[in-house]
Amino acid sequence: MTIGSGTGPADGLTALYAQWAAALGQPSGAFDANAVAPEVAKLLQAYTALVGGGMSLPPLAGIPSGRWRATLAPWLQAAESAYQQWARSPAAADYVVTTAQSAMTHRKSLPTEWGQGYGAAAAARDAFGLPAEGMPRVVMWEEGAARVYQYGESTHRSAPLFIVYAMINRPSILDLDAERSMIRGLVAGGRTVYVLEWGDPGPADQGRPLVDWVLGTVDRAVRAVAGRRAIDLMGICQGGVFALCYAALEPRRVRRLVTLVTPVDCHTPDDVLSHWIRHLDVGPMVSAQSAVSGAALATAFQALAPYRLGVGKYLDLLDHADDPRWVQRFRRMERWVHDSPDQPAAAWCDFVQRCYQQNQLVRGTLTLGDRAVDLGRIEAPLLNVYALDDHIVPPAASRALAGLTRSKRYDEIAVPTGHIGIFVSQRAAGLPARIAEWLARR
Hints:
The chain is built from 18 helices and twelve strands. By secondary structure, the protein is α/β, with parallel strands linked by helices. The strands form three sheets. An eight-stranded mixed β-sheet has the order 1-2-4-3-5-6-11-12, with helices on both faces.
């Protein structure tokens, strides 16, 4: 199978990931580089088969310790480049639409080949993955599956910092590792941090539209922890869209606003995710299943950059096999990656249609209920943080926010990482302190 043939990559990629997951599922939970290296070789060979044009791998036997990434970098870059060319083609968008709609027609939660590969990887996470190394926290509010957790001691010296994370993943990525923790850095900067965790949606959540989550759940959570006080509000990815909507509709409740890797303009030329789903009819997905499969969405995100995400990180793992702390951090990341909650159907459909398909936020046509979301109503100081190598939310998609609000102060921070690296990469190590410093300005 070659990309040039117009055949989609999903079946091959997930089968490869299943192989890798099986290789990681060692009963002891230990990592043995010598045992896993042959599985990496199989992975590389199979990935190469996905790319046409006679591309071949260099000899894999005898690659010295610590040189996997360097040895295979030219191949990896060429393979990713070939894939990205295909991913931006009409054939790729057609494949995604056809596959997704076929799944909906047969009332499946996700394509069979996606589910098999993802399921094998998810099964391995308990054997190989590690839970987050989180700091102590206290439940301050709960409603259904949603929880608000407090980090750090309560203080009235500064406004509460309330974080709205995306519904698509768990916010544990913000405190995954003691040495690289967004939350620990913010608490060290003198903030009391509150994090809204959406949890797993139940049957009663499936019909709730987007407005019910933004002006319902978010608003009630904010009022529960802050009372009448204005808050410092931080929104991350999809949660950044929620934060912008909330700040526009309830401007008096937001003292300062921070957005991280937030999609504002979803029709930028380099937005592969938007290219794939712009013409997808998501309506039948809502009626065909009780929830949108988190496993399917995780597979789709992996497929946006499979050589970087599905091969590159494992070469890095082999290169750092002698560093127990590095391997431990990798194992925590693997557990987080495979822990993707299902999405409440109506809200997910609303979000995709309004933001990714109709681009209503940047066009100024978004409404929630009977209220217009006018970003021009936001006057709070605004810090917009984006990642320069983001494969999910390209920098241009976030930078489109500039000029759309009437913020008294608008600042940007560009971080030389990817979408997830902004929270865990060494290159983003100083980001929490920079955010805390910005919030402390008067």
